[in-house]
Design goal:
This protein is of the alpha+beta class. It is 44% helix and 40% strand. It has a three-stranded antiparallel beta sheet, with helices on one face.
C-alpha cells in the first residue's frame, strides 16, 4: 500500500482546473488516481478539495492502524 495525496492545477484550453490525486490499490498494484475538483477560480473547488483530502487521510489512518495491529500480533507470535 502506498500512502499519499495532493492536488494539481492543470491548464486546459487556457483555463485552470484543480485535480485531487491519491494512491489506490487496484488489482494488487498501487496506482495514482486523479479526481476532478473544479475550476481553479470556483468558490466550491477549495471546499471540495479539502473534503477529499480529509476523507483520504481519515481512511489511510484507519488502514494504517489496522496494519499496525496485524504487525503487532505477528511480532508477539515470534
Amino acid at each position: 500500500m502506498q500512502v499519499g495525496c495532493g492536488f494539481r492545477v492543470k491548464a486546459v484550453h487556457g483555463q485552470d482546473y484543480v485535480y485531487f490525486w491519491h494512491y489506490e490499490d487496484r488489482d494488487g498494484r498501487s496506482r495514482q488516481v486523479y479526481e476532478y475538483m473544479g475550476p481553479r477560480r470556483s468558490s466550491g473547488t477549495a471546499s471540495r478539495l479539502v473534503a477529499a483530502m480529509e476523507a483520504y487521510y481519515a481512511a489511510a489512518g484507519n488502514d494504517l492502524r489496522r496494519q499496525l495491529v496485524g504487525h503487532r500480533a505477528a511480532i508477539a507470535a515470534l
